[in-house]
Write a sequence for this structure.
């Protein structure tokens, strides 16, 4: 599998938001905890819709949550 | 290990068990009946047709049993949503299933083209269904663990 080009700060943002759990974030954006774990680990690149939902939960712009390395 | 990984592991093991038992039963019947080429085709056709509902029914039963056992042991509720990650894994696994099945189907046609008995063609088709099922289950387990 190729090295993921999309990285994210979800772990850090969860920590900064009163240590929000993965399950809480999953419930807020309507996915399973396993999906959040896969995104955090860089094993799955979410759809644009899900990426925006996650960014909205943290009240941050998309580029603060996800970054792309060409 | 997450619910989905446990579920796929259980599906894979049950699929292997059911397939091996059913294939063994079919081969035993085939040898015991001493079929001619006429009812040979009927036998294999019926065997493949019966195999499909057998797999569906066992999958439903295994799912029910697994859900109950999982809830009792882990106190964890079964996920009610199928999100985009699940759908993508399902699609990629189905693709692997179809590729494997198409390869087996071509092999079965090669056997016919090489003047092999029809029983060889049907046997290859049956093995292909079984192996494609394994590939589908293994793919799901792999993608849940390693990502897509």
């Amino acid at each position: 599998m190729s090295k993921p080009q999309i990285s994210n700060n979800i772990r850090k943002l969860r920590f900064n938001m009163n240590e929000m759990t993965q399950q809480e974030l999953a419930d807020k954006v309507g996915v399973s905890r396993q999906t959040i774990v896969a995104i955090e680990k860089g094993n799955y690149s979410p759809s644009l819709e899900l990426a925006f939902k996650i960014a909205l939960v943290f009240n941050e712009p998309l580029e603060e949550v996800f970054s792309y390395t060409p | 290990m997450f619910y989905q990984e446990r579920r796929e592991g259980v599906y894979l093991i049950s699929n292997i068990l059911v397939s091996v038992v059913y294939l063994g039963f079919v081969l035993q019947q085939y040898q015991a009946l001493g079929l001619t080429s006429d009812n040979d085709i009927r036998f294999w056709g019926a065997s493949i047709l019966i195999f499909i509902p057998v797999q569906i029914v066992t999958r439903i039963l295994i799912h029910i049993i697994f859900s109950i056992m999982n809830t009792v042991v882990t106190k964890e509720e079964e996920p009610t949503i199928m999100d985009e990650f699940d759908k993508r894994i399902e699609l990629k696994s189905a693709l692997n299933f179809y590729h494997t099945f198409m390869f087996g189907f071509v092999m079965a046609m090669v056997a016919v083209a090489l003047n092999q008995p029809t029983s060889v063609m049907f046997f290859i088709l049956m093995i292909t269904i079984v192996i494609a099922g394994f590939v589908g289950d293994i793919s799901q387990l792999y993608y849940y663990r390693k990502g897509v």
Remarks:
- The CA atoms of residues 12 and 18 of chain A lie 11 Å apart.
